[in-house]
Amino acid sequence: HSHGYSMQLDEFLDSIRKLVELYEQGESANVIGPKLGYDYRFVGYVIRYLGLARNRGYYWKGVKNPNWRTPNLDMSPNLAYILGVLYGDGCVDNRNSIRLSVRSRPFAESFAKALTEINLLCSVRDEIRSSRAKWGAGKMFYQVTVMSKKFADWFKILTFTQIETQLNSHELMNQFIRGMYESEGTLSFIRRTWYQIIIVNTNYSLMVLIKTLLEKLGYGYIGFRSIPRTGKRTIHRLYFAQRAQIDRFMHEVSPVIKRI
Fold it and tell me: pLDDT truncated to tens, each residue of the chain (260 aa)?
């Protein structure tokens, strides 16, 4: 019997090691639990017992890592992409939480990967939206959430003028535009022969910035139209349909969704 208990103990300890490994890779308790056959509350208990809880700082053997969740805010392709998403489908709320909830898993995974690259470790969580939700009731959504006061404080005072100045290379401009396109863009047929790219947002200054960046990148005619709405904010619509430009956009901006 003691041999059987020993085997069970070894298997249990192996699963706890795997639990810690997944947590250190940025997975959440909600993701780890089903993978290992545990309730998410048990996963949380183990993480807290071992002193690894992220909201208390990252600890290992009693030593705190001062760089845990300290984001790298030097402008980079990943940071440019993150900003583009946050001005589109994403947001930074008043609890310093960076959030994205979308129907596309590849889009959510792309955002989570970019955040992890700037030292904000996170993962994608699946969630079926409540039947009482105002939009998307009963449908699967993919969520990314990570908290960082340093990032939130920086983001909240950032201006579009500062962003334009920092996006000082073609790669940085393309990545910012990619984040906006994946969030707010549409690829639609025009006259059943070719495609049209459309980006829509209610923030006029943001849309002017997107148009400016596309012009800096050498795109030709870019349509721009403001559409007033009764009782609602005006929609600003940017679009272009030249085949060569769309081919170039798909190659250089290289979105993970809404592709030809």
Answer: 544 556 577 888 888 888 888 887 777 788 888 888 898 888 888 887 776 665 444 444 444 444 456 899 999 999 999 999 999 999 999 888 899 999 999 999 999 999 999 989 888 888 887 666 666 677 889 999 888 889 999 999 999 999 999 999 999 999 999 999 999 999 988 776 788 999 999 999 999 999 999 999 999 899 999 999 999 999 999 999 888 999 999 999 999 999 87
- What sign results for the dihedral spanned by CA atoms 123, 124, 126, 131? positive
Q: Is 98 within 8 Å of 86 (Cβ atoms)? A: yes
Residues 103 and 141 sit within 8 Å (Cβ to Cβ): yes
d(C-alpha 214, C-alpha 229), whole Å: 27
* pTM as predicted: 0.75
Instruction: Beginning with the edge strand found earlier in the chain, give each strand of the sheet holding 185-190 in spatial order.
Output: 185-190, 194-201, 232-240, 223-229
DSSP string, 120-181: ----EEEEEPPTT-SSSTT-EEEEEEEE-HHHHHHHHT--HHHHHHH--SHHHHHHHHHHHH
Q: Closest by alpha carbon to 174, among 248, 71, 72?
A: 248
Half-sphere exposure of 121 (CA within 13 A, CB side): 14
Tell me the pairing of strands 232-240 and 194-201: antiparallel
Pick the closest to residue 146 from 69, 59, 44 (CA basis). 69
- E strands, the chain, in order: 59-60, 63-64, 91-92, 97-102, 124-128, 140-147, 185-190, 194-201, 223-229, 232-240
Token reading at 239: 């679009």
